[in-house]
Amino acid sequence: MNRTLCLTILMACIFNLSKIQAQNFLEKEILVEVKNQTTESTMFILEKLGGFNFSYDAMLLDPTKMVSIEGKRASLEEILDELFQGRFTYKVIGSHVILQAKNKDGLNNTMWILSGIISDSQGNPLENAIVYEVNRQASFITNPDGRYMLRLEGDQPLGINFSCKGYQDTVAFIQSNQNKSFNIALHPWKAENIFKEHPTFSQSLRPKNKAINWAYTEKDLKDLAMVNLMVPRKTLYVSNNLNVQEVRLVQVSFIPSWGTNRLTNGLVTNKYSLNIIAGYSANIDGLEIGAVANIIRQEMNGVQIAGAVNVVGEDVNGIQVAGAVNTNLGNMDGVQVAGAVNRVKGDIKGLQISGAVNTAAVTSADSLSLKGWNGQLSGGINLHGGERINLQVSGAYNQANSVDGLQVSGGINYVKGTTNGLQLSALYNHTYKLRGIQFGLINHADTIENGFPIGLVNIIKNGYHKWEFSSDESFYLNVAYKTGGKNLYSFLKIGVGKYLNAAYGIGYTTNPKRKFSVNLDLSGSALFNTDSDYDLFAGDIYRAQLGLNFKLSDQLVLSTGPAYNFCSPDKKQEKVANGNLSSQNTPFYGNYHIDKAVSSLKNQYWLGWQLGLRF
């Protein structure tokens, strides 16, 4: 090899260090410049830049023809079209880019059989090796004695791919014959073999990212009940062990083993896919409709609609609609709608809507990060294990690591981390850190940074906790428990006098650690009669109370201040309305104002006071 050729390869490799991936050769952009090189030398340069091997019928090319390519960055497919002036089509199988003539004039319908034995380099037959005609005429999985047989058509040389797990793929072009025998030995696959001749290229040619995660797909997809039910084992084996990339405009299948793509349907990316009952494809880049089930081995980009079930082995980008269940083993970016269950193993960016259950990122929450908006709506349960979610609405139960927005449940909301926004439930809310509002029967938080809980019972582990004993103008003794964050809190209070009072309220305090502080309490309460001659419920009292606080010690605070009251008596108390109720108490202490409201059945307003101890 001359110095010019070596320099060309080396420079091109440097320019493409960050671009090279082993699974998508035709689409990969490369930078190459050759001047007056033979076709053979030029193809060798391209092989080294892309980390693949060309396979073609030797009769198609003149290897000594001199060619030149201007230095420019373009995809391999564009470079090949320029080099061969559009005379060939290209197909990627494993590490091979196969060239085939576009002009097929003169082909006939001659039928012939190719058979033989596949063995290893020691002559031992290889079971479960795959034989694949590159134009998808036929494929075969060898039996225990390594034998195969393909029924083929045409009088042109055909490319045949021989592959077996743990061995190097081999492509051979075989001339048609009435009955032809072809035996082949496959050599063990070793990654370092590719780089023995030119070790300086080894770093740049190793792929940094896998375009197809075979182990992930094989491990998870094959374990799903729907996949095992619908997809034949041979079809799964071929798709998981034969690395072929092919794009088709349209495919139609009745069931996965009976359709236009036959045994190799799991190797084909379809633009449009129609499945009369169920279908199985490598990818969808467009639209797929299935009466019962759609099964995608890798990615779905577009719209997928199934009467019952959609299954995708990797990521979904678009809209997914199923009458019963959507299952994605990768990430979801878009909208997912199911009559019963949506399941996403990875992240979601978008919205999940289901009649019963939504789950996302529930198996590997610690390793996930999320940017963008996402939400879950279900009639039953939402589970999200990603970094954060913006919206969860369910009929029974929501669970998330963190919420930035709104969480609404008919039963329980549970957040392991931080809630930035609103938790609203009929029964119970839990969050570790609250930066917003909790509204429920029972609210629980470890810490409140900015916000407050509103509920019958509020439990804040690391927050404001105070008991308060006080007296005021209407009740001889009040007992209150206050809990909340640094400044905002809620409280429950019971007042005892001629009447009983059960109050709930919210309050705000300045820094309670200082010697002097101020608080404002707003409350609403139910008023009850203690005299059995009258109805139990007497009315409602609403109170705004200002507290001027003096710290007597680290744990004891004296509080006093004015209050403003509004009492609305129960208008249905006929016995009370007879005017027999009267009070000897003064307007400044006792139940004077409450008696007046209850006896007259008219609303009363008055100024009051309070004096108490808080600890």
UniProtKB/TrEMBL annotation:
Q: Which UniProt keywords apply?
A: Signal
Keyword Signal in record: yes
> Gene3D superfamilies in the record, alphabetically?
Carboxypeptidase-like, regulatory domain (2.60.40.1120)
Task: Give the signal sequence positions.
Answer: 1-22
Q: By what name is this protein known?
A: CarboxypepD_reg-like domain-containing protein
Q: Which organism is it from?
A: Marinifilum caeruleilacunae
Taxonomy, top ranks, is: Bacteria, Pseudomonadati, Bacteroidota, Bacteroidia, Marinilabiliales
